[in-house]
Structures are given as structure tokens and as C-alpha cells.
Amino acid sequence: MVDRVNKFGLKVDVKLANFIDNEVLKEIGLDNGDFWKNFNSFITKLSLKNKELLDKRKKIKEKLDIWHKERKENIDYIEYKKYLEEIEYLVPEGEPFTIETANTDPEISYICGPQLVVPITNARYALNAANARWGSFYDAIYGTDVLGDVPSSSDYDKERGEQVIEYARSYLNKTFPLDGESWESVNKLNIENNKLNIEVNKNNTKLLDEEQYAGYRILGDQKLEIILKKNNLHIRIFINPENKIGKTDKANIADIYFESAISTIMDCEDSVATVDGEDKVLAYKNWLGLMKGNLSTKFIKDNQEIERKLSEDLPYTKKNGENGILKGRSLMLIRNVGHLMTNPAILTENNEEIFEGLMDAMFTTLIGMINFKSNNKNSNYDSIYVVKPKMHGPEEVAFANETFNQIEQILNLPEYTVKLGIMDEERRTSANLSECIRSAKNRVAFINTGFLDRTGDEIHTSMEAGPFLKKGEMKSTKWINSYENRNVKIGLKCGLKGKAQIGKGMWAMPDLMKDMLNNKIIHPKAGANCAWVPSPTAATIHAMHYHEISVSKVQEKLINSTDDDTLEDLLAIPLSKGQNWSDEDIQNEINNNCQSILGYVVRWVDQGVGCSKVPDINDIGLMEDRATCRISSQILANWLKHGIIEEDNLINTMKNMAIKVDEQNSNDPKYIPMSKNYDGTAFKAACRLVLEGSYQPSGYTEPILHEMRLHQKAKLN
Predict the structure, then answer these.
(1) One domain, residues 428 and 304
(2) Which residue is catalytic, options 603, 625, 630, 688?
(3) Is the domain of 370 the same as that of 450?
(4) Which residues make Cβ contacts (< 8 Å) with residue 391, sequence separation at least 6?
(5) What is the pLDDT of residues 118-144, one digit of tens each?
(6) What pLDDT shows up at residue 110?
(7) Is 688 a catalytic residue?
(8) Is 630 a catalytic residue?
(9) How far apart (Å, rounded) are the C-alpha atoms in residues 123 and 475?
């Protein structure tokens, strides 16, 4: 039984109420009574609109199901488009416009670079991400497979260290070339009268592009950092005569620090498992610590206790002699949940759970205000960046805009203090992206694409049209290419260049950094000024792509391009018509998806872990969150509906894959095996995600996962 306190008609979990009253409102200086009274009015008013929007989603889906059942795979585009307009799935596109978002920070407006997404409930991960503004290039190359393999042991390998130095010098030659010389030949770097001196065999040389020199930091005892810059990204070359790395290091370069994770999304949504008041307090408490600047955590590494805190900003001297500051932390955005879910942390007078998205919107904004008086500001302009996922079309974006209008009035914040990130991950948003942006044109600071959620919605929207292609095959279809290209071009057409981020999705394989280095350059080449990476190390490596590519120049070309990615391509449903899969092909797809679902769900339900590195069927670690689970469950639900697979085969495969997942987790002392009797909460949840997947709201996994996690928490307690 949850202890609750009455707050002007709202029945609030005591843990949450005490946290808001004593740690948040008291810190800001707001009256408890006024706040809760206003919050109750806010919930009462906006919940009605929220329910209406969800009801519209349901009615549109019902109409689409009937239409698709009648036609199956025989879909004429002109007829289809006309029908989508009739049911208000597609809305008329208005006159051209540009967004009017003001006071966006440089990390949003013109610094292009990697972006992290981390679960806000894990303080260590959150701090790692916030501090990942800077990363060691030497460590990133030494500790990953970029050189072709990974270190064989934890002991320092001198030969590998020499290879790292050679790699780094080669990179400097390419990215920050010298005039007629190579970095391998440099034997001395120093500063005189703010000027950078580069000595090669007792002769001075200079950077080929002297504008790349930005300044320096004097650290004492002959230690200093030379600060260079390319495409608005800085690097710091650390000179330390006492820490000579190897025989090739004549210049005493002890390390090179890259400006890496320019921004980080602190996530209250897909990468967490927050199902009640206790969980929500943990999320909000860590956000509070980040905003106050006092979040810390202790952990044991290599038999030593380590305390992690937020990094400080870095003072430096500019090349003109003036004082400057390099940000020490990634710019932090906060991702709220979408419009669908409710949460038992707060009940209405009628004992109904309130919408979690409204709760997130109010409390994360409230906590964000605390940073306005911090010495280490997140935003130079006292802006609060909220990323809003899983919105369907312009009306739902307009509702998010209205939500923050109301919050700003209640909290006496300047209009448009809250900047909005629109995640383009639902089909109705993709098809109406321009109008979605228009609906929040004074707030938009971020749009992005995400293959997993977007594909999950693609399948669910047209569930009755016929069997879909295999998950991997969808990456080469017309709709996904149109989706990726239209997102950037529409964003640029709506004036996001120089004002907002246009992002791309996650590289999900944190151990395969060489592959990422070879492949993820496609994102800046596509005009994306940020893209998601799975770790701080990956951010340092991905920063290399933003040194090489000027996203601003790419965007300029795209703005002037006459190429068009059509709505017709976007709406081309990726059905498996004409495919001739063998029984082995089909079974491999079932195996792959069942293993993926089970590997993720078992940690979510049993341990409350919303995002982690989960081994795939081939034991390759993948960063998985609910989006991964959504696409896997939806493809199997679709195949089940259309007779590609049978329920008995599905359940048997789930049982076989449960054995494999149990083996993969055998070293986890907290792990509860699924294959003992196949009757545990996690195994049942995984099966339900497929068996009930065709009629879950928008194919989301949250309703089942939340229900089963609450059940498991009650059982374990």
C-alpha cells in the first residue's frame, strides 16, 4: 500500500510530495500551497485534452484497419493519400514559414557534434555523460578496436601506446596540418606572448590554417594545453614533460582531449523503468542534482573507491590575450515521457492515475529553474530544453506547446523559456513534419530521426495491410530513405539552421567502434548537426566526423538543393509482397527477435533496468531500450496476424531463446532465470508483447511492461 498525502484533491505518493515540497519548492522559494493548487488545476484542465488526443489516435487506427483489411496489399497511392486526408491523418500544409525560436545555446544553434542519451535514474551514467564534453583521444583509440583489435589485458601495452601516438599524429596531420611539416617531426610546443610556437628540428613552423589556433591553458610546472579548433569544435593538446608516453613523443604530448559530447539527453522515457512514485523520485532527484551542480556518486573500480562529480568549466587565455571559458559539461536536455502513459505516483480525487507526461513537464521544468542561479549554468540564456517523444501529428505537438505555455504562466517564467525537442518517430508526425514544427515554431530547438520507434509505428499503423518485410530488410526500403532525407530538408526549410538541432539516431554497438568510425560519418554528411552515440568514448570517436565535415556547409547545399524526397515514397508501406522466404529464413527472424525481446524485458521487469548493453543472438553487445523492444515485438505480432508464424512456434521459440538469455546472464547475481518453469513475470511479459502487440496502443511496449514491473515489484517486496 502506497502512503499518500492530499494536495488540493490530488493524492500524491508521500515520497514524491516530500521531495517536491522540501527539496524543490523550498530551494526555489515557491509556496507549497499555491504550487499544488495550480498544479491540480493544470492537471484537471489538460487531462481532458490529452484524453481527446489519445481517442483520436484510436479512431484513426480503427479506420485505417478497416481500410487495409478491405484492400490488403493492393494499395493505390492516390486513393490512399485521399483517404488519409479524409480521416485527418494527413493535414493541409500551410504557407512557408521559419521558426522563431530565440535564446538557444551554441550547442543547439551552431556547434555540431555527438549527442548522448542516458537514463536519468543512473547517477553514474548521468554524470559520465554530462562530463563527456571532453574525452581523451588517446584513451578512446587505445581502449577500443579502432586500431583493429582491443587490448588483451588491463596492463599497459607499450607497443600499443606507440601505435596510439602514431595514429594521433597522423590525425593531427590530416585535421590540423602544419605548413610544410608533419606532427611526427615536432619536438617542441610552447607559448610566447600568446603566440603558438611550433618547433621542428630547431626551426619554427606554424599551422597551415592559423585560424585553427584558439588559445592556451597554463597548468604550471611546464604543463600547458594548446587549444585548437575546427568546425567550432575544440581540442586540447596536453603538454607534460613529466609524463612522456613513448619514444615517438618528442614534443611531450601526454594526451589530446577532444570536445566530444556537445549535448546530452537526460532521459525520463525509453531508457528508464519508472513505474511508480519511488521510481519517479529517483529520476527527478538526479535531475535536481544535475541542475544544482551537486550530484555525486561513489563506486568501486579496480579495488578503489571513486567519487564522481560534475566537471567545472575550463578557464583559458584566448590567442588575443583575453580571458575565455570552455564549457566543462555537455549541454543537458531532459526527455519527458509521451502523451500516452499514466503513473500511480499521483492519483486524482476519483483515484485515476494522472498523465505521466504532464507530471514530467511540470516537475522537470520546475527543477530546471534551479539552475538559473547556479555558478555552473547549463544554459547561457536560462533556457530549459525538453525533448518530447511519441507525438502523433501537429495537434499533439500543439498540445505540448500549450502544456509549456501553462507551466510558464504558473511558474512565472518568461514566455518560451522551455525549448521543445520534437522526436520524429511516429508516422503521422513524419508525414506532417512541417506542420508539426509550425505548431511549436517559437519553441522548436530539436528534431531527429530514429529507425527503431519509427519502424515500430510503421508496422503498427498498417498492421492489417499484410505481412511486413524482415526487420533488417526495412533499412533499404523507399520509405526509410525518404524519412531520413525529408526530416533534414523539412527542418532546414523551416529555418532550423543556426537555431536548432537536426539529429540522427543511435549507433547501437558500443564495442564496434572501428565500424562506427567507418560508417557513422553518413550522419554529418546528411546534414545532421548531432547524432546519438552509446558512450562517452563513442562520442570522442564520432567527434572525428565533425572535424572532417562542416555540417553548416552541407546544410547550405541542401537548402539550395532542388532534389525532392516525396511523400509518396514516405507512405510506401514496406510489405513482403513477392518475397519467397525459406522456413530457415523465417525461423532465424523469429529467433533473433524473440532473443532480443527476452534479453531486454528480463532486465526491465525483474531489475528495473531500462537501458543496458544486451547481448544479441550472436553475443554482440547492443545498447537496447524500449524502442528496440517495440520493433521486435511489432514485426512478430504482424507475422503472427498474417500467418507467417504460428502461436505454438512463437512460444516454443521464446522458450528456446529464454535458455540462451539465461546463459548470457549467468554471471549476474541479481538475475532470475526464465527457463526454469517459464512461468515468471518477465517471460510472460515478453510473450504478451507479441501476442497482444497488434492491438497495443500504437504498438507501444509501455503498458505491458509497466503493469508487469509493478507486479514484480510487489512480489519482490
Answers:
(1) yes
(2) 625
(3) yes
(4) 338, 339, 397, 400, 422, 423, 426, 429, 436
(5) 999 999 999 999 999 999 999 999 999
(6) 96
(7) no
(8) no
(9) 34
Q: Which domain holds residue 496?
A: 50-111+265-313+330-504+549-570
Number of Cβ atoms within 10 Å of the Cβ of 398? 18
Summarize pLDDT for 208-262 with one digit per residue, the tens.
999 999 999 999 888 999 999 999 999 999 999 886 555 557 899 999 999 999 9
Residue whose entry in the numeric block shows the C-alpha cell 526527455: 335
Q: Which residue has the cell 626551426?
A: 203
Domain boundary among 214, 243, 259: 259
pTM for this entry: 0.97
SS3 of the chain: helix, strand, coil, percent, to 5: 45, 20, 35
| Active-site pick, 4, 335, 603, 630 | 335
The secondary element (H helix, E strand) that includes residue 567 is helix 567-570
Segment 257-293, tens digit of pLDDT: 999 999 999 999 999 999 999 999 999 999 999 999 9
pLDDT at 477 over 80: yes
Domain at 203, CATH number: 2.170.170.11
By the 8 A CB rule, do 94 and 438 touch? Answer: yes
492-540, pLDDT tens digit by residue? 999 999 999 999 999 999 999 999 999 999 999 999 999 999 999 999 9
Whether residue 360 is found in the same domain as residue 491? yes
Place of cell 511523400: 567
Pair (230, 299) in one structural domain: no
Task: Give how far Cα 149 sits from Cα of 38, 142, 509, Å.
Answer: 58, 10, 15
Instruction: Give the C-alpha separation, 711 to 708, whole Å.
Output: 5
Task: Give the H or E element holding residue 114.
Answer: strand 113-119
Q: Is residue 16 part of a domain?
A: no
Model confidence at 13, in pLDDT bands (50, 70, 90)? Answer: very high
> At 712, is the pLDDT very low, low, confident or very high (cuts 50, 70, 90)?
very high
HEC per residue, 158-181? HHHHHHHHHHHHHHHHHHCCECCC
Query: How many alpha carbons lie under 13 Å from residue 106 in its C-beta half-sphere?
Result: 9
Q: How far apart are CA 261 and CA 331, in angstroms?
A: 9
Residues 6+ apart with CB under 8 A from 395: 53, 56, 439
